[in-house]
């Protein structure tokens, strides 16, 4: 054994360098300087092949990329609007609700009504709406209501105004023209429509539930009952005049049904 004491100096440095060189030579001969690896097994067809796999991957210490699942689309929010009911349009005074209002601009007198005795039944002696005819200044006639054979109702003049229909009977009576001819009875829809007009008049203006044949009476009358003072017409004819009782039965039934709880 050699013991070295004290300061070695340059000889000591040379000795350390020689030892280091020898150590590196031994490592190069034995191959101990190579980094350790692991071998993975990969399946290739029917055989096996060995491939180096990093240790960090096998040990789970390395960072690996993880595929994120596709984003699930979120449902679209549908904004719901609350339905609001429109305010009903007010019906002008003297006009019937639920019928086609077609006011004419001529051939009637504003105001001039002396009373509300009832409704006078007329026959058109023709077919089709009378709006165009009553709107012509040369016609010199009009009516408050018109009823088609299908039961459609048009109103041309407010019942607070005087229509030019039955001469001396105009101040106290409301008039309704019915499509068709005096030789034909009212159709079933016409009977119902005339009854509707009368029900409205009974509720709004106090028309009595009766048939009349006198200009001084009240109720459902005819143009012919006014004789010469009303123009001397046979309107609406015997067939339609006799149907007034049927119309009044429908009026009573309608009013009774509306009062039944």
Condensed summary:
This protein is of the alpha/beta class and 261 residues long.
Superfamily (CATH H level) name of the domain at 100-259: Peptidoglycan recognition protein-like
Order of helices and strands: HEEHEEEHEEEEHEHH
Quaternary structure type: single chain
Identify the CATH class of the domain at 100-259. Alpha Beta
Domain N-acetylmuramoyl-L-alanine amidase: 105-237
GO molecular function, one term: N-acetylmuramoyl-L-alanine amidase activity
Protein name: N-acetylmuramyl-L-alanine amidase, negative regulator of AmpC, AmpD
Organism: Streptomyces clavuligerus
Give a structural overview:
The protein has 261 residues and is an alpha/beta fold. The protein has a domain at 100-259: Peptidoglycan recognition protein-like (Lysozyme-like, 3-Layer(aba) Sandwich), CATH 3.40.80.10. The protein has helices at residues 10-30, 55-59, 131-135, 188-205, 238-242, 244-259, and strands spanning 38-44, 47-53, 100-101, 108-112, 118-123, 145-147, 153-155, 161-163, 173-178, 219-222. The protein has a six-stranded mixed beta sheet, with helices on one face. Strands 1-2 form a two-stranded antiparallel ribbon. It has a two-stranded antiparallel sheet with strand order 4-8. Helix 4 (188-205) packs across helix 6 (244-259). It starts with 9 loop residues before the first helix and ends with a helix. The model is unreliable at 1-15, 30-34, 36-51 and 55-62 (pLDDT under 50).
């Amino acid at each position: 054994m050699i013991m070295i004491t004290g300061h070695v100096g340059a000889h000591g440095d040379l000795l350390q360098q020689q030892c280091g060189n020898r150590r590196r030579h031994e490592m190069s001969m034995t191959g101990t300087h190579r980094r350790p690896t692991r071998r993975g097994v990969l399946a290739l067809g029917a055989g096996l092949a060995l491939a180096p796999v990093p240790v960090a991957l096998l040990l789970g210490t390395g960072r690996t990329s993880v595929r994120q699942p596709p984003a699930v689309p979120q449902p679209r929010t549908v904004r719901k609007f609350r339905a609001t009911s429109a305010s009903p349009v007010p019906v002008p005074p003297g006009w019937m609700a639920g019928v086609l209002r077609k006011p004419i601009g001529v051939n009637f007198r504003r105001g001039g009504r002396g009373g509300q005795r009832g409704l006078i039944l007329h026959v058109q002696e023709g077919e089709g709406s009378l709006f165009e005819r009553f709107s012509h200044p040369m016609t010199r006639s009009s009516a408050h209501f018109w009823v088609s054979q299908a039961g459609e109702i048009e109103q041309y003049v407010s019942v607070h105004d005087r229509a030019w229909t039955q001469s001396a009977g105009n101040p106290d009576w409301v008039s309704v023209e019915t499509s068709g001819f005096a030789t034909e009875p009212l159709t079933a829809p016409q009977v119902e429509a005339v009854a509707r007009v009368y029900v409205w008049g009974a509720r709004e203006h106090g028309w009595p539930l009766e048939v009349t044949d006198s200009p001084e009476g009240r109720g459902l009358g005819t143009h012919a009952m006014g004789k010469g003072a009303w123009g001397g017409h046979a309107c609406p004819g015997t067939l339609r005049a006799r149907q007034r009782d049927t119309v009044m039965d429908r009026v009573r039934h309608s009013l009774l049904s509306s009062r039944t709880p």
